[in-house]
Amino acid sequence: MLAALALGLALGGSALGQVGVAALDTDRAQWEAAAARAIGAGLSVRVTPHTGAALFQQVFFVSPVARFDVAHVPTGWVPTVADRLANLSPYAAELQAAGLELHSHGGRVIGVVLPWRRDALGTILVRSPRIEESVRFLFHLGTPTTVAAPTLGRVVPLAIGPVTLEKVARGNPFVDGAIETLLSVVRQVVPTGQVTALAHLPFPAQDVLTKVAGMLGIPVLGAAGEITLVIERRGGVAPLGISPEAMPSPLGLTEVSVPLGQLESFLAQVGAGVYVRLPHTPHELGVTSQGAALVGAGAFHAAGIRGAGARVAVIDLGFNGLAASQARGDLRPTVITRDFTGTGVASGISHGTAVAEIVHDVAPDAQLYLIKIGNEVDLDHAITYSISEGMHIITHSLGWYNTNFYDGTGVIADIVRRATDAGILWVQAAGNSARRHYGATFADGNGDGWHDTDVTLTATAGQPMRIYITWDAWPKTGDDYDLYLFGPGGALVASSTRTQGGTEQPTESVTTTATATGTYRVRIHRAGGATRRLSLFSINQDLAPAVAASSIPAPGDVTEALTVGAVNWTNYTTGPIAPYSSRGPTTDGRPKPDLVAPDNVTTGVVPHYSPFQGTSAAAPHVAGVAALLKAESPALTRPTLTSRILALCVAMGDPFAFGAGRLEARPLAVARPDLVVD
């Protein structure tokens, strides 16, 4: 085999033909760098970038006609596409000699692990007429890419009133950097050694603290200026001073409230064994009924199957308007409520009420539980409650950001698995981020420390803006990235500059309000560490450029969750997918969503949720159908219920948009008994 390859080298690339490479668009720079090295060695190479969905189609459907030779294949695809990939076992020794790590499946080598990401392979398609040339190209993947240290210079600091915010040097490695940033502001505006309530500070100091806390996503509550923190136990004990009633959740999360005036003394007690961070706060997945008939509820109702005996929990941020909904008959007076926030189940937003109304439309006799949460600690306790109540189904139309790299891991995923391990079907909205997500590998062509692509969004004065970014270095990292938001005039309006030093999570986020109408610019700065894949979400505005692929937030990325995309009810049988409906695959290459259901339907919750757009409206249709199926066949387990639902779907195309297709449920056929004549 070495002799054959040596002959190829002597012949040169033009004699051997051009190697076509199907690359993932987010990794284009790395593939093109390998191509440049190969071209320098005499090969002819062409790299064509594809979205995740298009790349899957090239590998799975188009590979028999050999349009490409080499393909980027996420490891999660391997069981599905292995028979499309060439056997590289005869070249194993040469590939290993080139410094490449082999990946085997079914007793044969089918690819090499990409050096810049361990969740994907460089493969050769089985129908390629240029196998040996393609192997020669793979050799160049093993050439290490030298990443020049960024020219950091001085990053423009952010001025808020009399306070200047700069990147805070790493302090306590067991404390979230956003908390330390807030503490640095407390030190600037509160007299040295003074411990006082927020209300007792001069107004300028109150204003600065409130604005900085808001930008960092830290609500400040009450006259004392209390902030809520979460303590993760990492094999140790909680800091001193925690009140006895602050009981940890089943996953070991403790929620505590700390007055700003006592923040420094509290953090001084934090050491190894715990990590103190901000709580994760979910976002509703509505963009701002006809859907019940479209998913097949009518046939069940006609057969007398209306969900009796099924128990369904709606876990949401608020159920405002609950009493009015019950008075209209859109919800029954027998719903059971539980509040884990201490603010009242019917306070706050009405999103949960609209979700519950859709479940009721589809399965009017199911027992509904309306459970209010505010963060992941509440969610963990809510699952304990749901298990104790014998819940069959949970529907969750909330998305969680910066809790993982959108790969089905992390604290929210662990909470979901507590439910599914107990036999509960978790029905999850896929999210509405197809136009509000950007994903790429960090690229810094000129070495100035800034990502080459600026991401823009357009906001109207007074609109909220919330932006999250994370990178593929979970759960703890020393790779340090920062997030900056510049206004229409070019001035810095918000920033997030945590220092990641090895024990911190790979996250940054900013929250602010647009002060002027116009185009805002999001910039990403690498303060240190390795080149990483980035995933950025905007909650309130569309992004340019937007990357629809891998735009499903947690826990829609969890394998055990039944993840639901959205199709407008007016074109439910034909499509297209709703333009905002989040797309797969997950960042580790698994297909998602699992299916689609209708949205843009009417509810009694006006004006915000009638019509009710978004995957928030699609998911409860599926939960309602699950309740009908459970009522029809009480012995169905979570896996068999999931299989039954997916078997009732009608395929509509791109699996990363539609999953198994649109849900069109029907009851089991009831055979008529034979007529017996005596």
Tell me what you see in this structure.
By secondary structure, the chain is α/β, with parallel strands linked by helices. It folds into 4 domains: 2-142, 3-Layer(aba) Sandwich (D-Maltodextrin-Binding Protein, domain 2); 158-277, no CATH class; 283-434 and 551-663, Peptidase S8/S53 domain (Rossmann fold, 3-Layer(aba) Sandwich); 441-538, Jelly Rolls. It is built from 19 helices and 30 strands. The strands form 8 sheets. Strands 14-15-13-16-18-27-28 form a 7-stranded parallel β-sheet, with helices on both faces. A hairpin with a 5-residue loop joins strand 22 (480-486) and strand 23. Helix 14 packs parallel to helix 17. The chain is globular and about 70 Å long.
Task: Sum up the structure in keywords.
678 residues, disordered C terminus, Rossmann fold, globular, six-stranded mixed sheet, D-Maltodextrin-Binding Protein, domain 2, alpha/beta, disordered N terminus
Instruction: Tally the beta strands.
Output: 30
Gap from first CA to last CA: 82 Å
What would CATH call the homologous superfamily of the largest domain?
Peptidase S8/S53 domain
- CATH fold-type name of the largest domain: Rossmann fold
CATH architecture classification name of the largest domain: 3-Layer(aba) Sandwich
Beta-strand proportion: 15-25%
Helix content: 25-40%
Largest sheet: 7 strands, parallel
Rounded to an integer, what's the Rg over CA atoms?
Answer: 27 Å
Secondary structure class reads alpha/beta
Give the CATH class of the largest domain. Alpha Beta
Overall shape: it is globular
* Low-confidence parts: 1-16, 144-154, 238-245, 670-678
Q: How confident is the prediction overall: mean pLDDT?
A: 86
Main sheet strand line-up: 14-15-13-16-18-27-28
How many distinct helices?
A: 19
Task: Tell me the count of domains.
Answer: 4
